[in-house]
Write a structure and sequence with these properties.
Low-confidence stretches: none
Strand content: under 5%
Structural class: mainly alpha
Number of helices: 19
Radius of gyration: 23 Å
Largest sheet: none
Shape: globular
Order of helices and strands: HHHHHHHHHHHHHHHHHHH
């Protein structure tokens, strides 16, 4: 089925999973040529070229697409090209793509977000804020604009404007935990600890099904040394997401700090059985075992992590500490 875009796309994913990255890029490009509206394929094409060690080929392909008659009038395709050029560090070319997307009649906020990110990557924070303000005029109810503006105002040291931007993001998208966490972090920096805690509690109580509120508040309590208050929140996370190994590892660490080694060991066993492809979870689990004086299991976890991610320096340090 050489003319079927779905078959070629499927082949691209299989090639990519097998590690044949140049072939996967070719298959994805064929699928895109057969169906120019499948603009989501720009990302796996870029990823495949990068994985093959051919970022220049990715760049040349994406730049060529900016003048492709099948795409020059497609705002979503142009915006997607922009994001992939940005991932390659090609800021002027990415800005060109986002500008073309807007000129082609983009009726979604993505290209303005891309232009703001490009300006930020150039070190132009005022320019990024100016782009966001333009985007807000076109899409006044798009919460991510305000959250990003809060981050930038905070980086510039303007806590008042950052606070106002985060609050607006919360008003527009109250079920999103991210601006709550950002604003709580700002309050913590300003020494407004009660306000930070109240904000996270507010989000958790209003949206008890959103797991991020429990993890954010649990992390906040853990950072404050309030382990007894953090533990029930992580227990809830385990109930909500029983297959997520990170919750078991983080809860185990809290029980270690509370002096309950038996419960910590039980949880570490659960953590070890989950997310086995995550080298950073193996690293964290190894350090919790280490804090219990169990170098045998710690070494096992660190070695598993290094098999997946050989550059995991923290695991190497742990192995040295355990004499492995």
């Amino acid at each position: 089925a050489p003319e079927d875009p779905a078959v070629n796309e499927a082949a691209g994913w299989v090639y990519q999973e097998l590690g044949f990255f140049e072939q996967s890029a070719d298959a994805f490009q064929t699928a895109l040529e057969l169906d120019p509206q499948s603009y989501w394929l720009y990302e796996p094409i870029t990823d495949s070229y990068e994985a093959a060690g051919l970022p220049q080929e990715a760049a040349e392909f994406l730049i060529g697409e900016l003048s492709n008659p099948a795409q020059v009038s497609s705002p979503p395709a142009l915006a997607t090209i922009g994001w992939n050029l940005l991932s390659l560090g090609m800021i002027p070319e990415a800005e060109q793509a986002f500008d073309q997307s807007i000129a082609a009649g983009a009726d979604f906020p993505d290209p303005w977000q891309g232009l703001a990110e490009a300006a930020y990557n150039r070190g132009d924070i005022p320019g990024a804020l100016a782009v966001l303000e333009t985007g807000m005029q076109v899409f006044p109810d798009h919460a991510p604009f305000y959250e990003k503006a809060g981050d930038l105002h905070r980086e510039l040291g303007d806590s008042k404007l950052a606070e106002a931007a985060y609050q607006r993001a919360i008003e527009l998208d109250p079920a999103n935990s991210s601006p709550y966490a950002d604003l709580a972090s700002l309050y913590s920096e300003l020494g407004m600890l009660a306000e930070a805690e109240q904000l996270l509690l507010q989000g958790m109580q209003a949206y008890p099904e959103v797991s991020e509120f429990y993890s954010d508040l649990g992390s906040y309590y853990a950072d404050q040394g309030r382990y007894a208050e953090a533990i029930p929140l992580y227990e809830t996370l385990i109930t909500q997401q029983p297959e997520e190994g990170w919750w078991y590892a983080e809860l185990a660490d809290l029980y270690v700090k509370q002096g309950d080694a038996d419960r910590a060991m039980q949880l570490l066993g659960e953590a070890s059985a989950r997310n086995r492809g995550d080298p950073w979870l193996h690293d964290t689990t190894g350090w919790v075992y280490y804090s219990l004086g169990d170098c045998e299991h710690a070494l096992e976890q660190w070695r598993l992590g290094l098999e997946i991610e050989p550059s995991l320096d923290s695991a190497r340090e742990g192995i040295q500490d355990c004499g492995g």
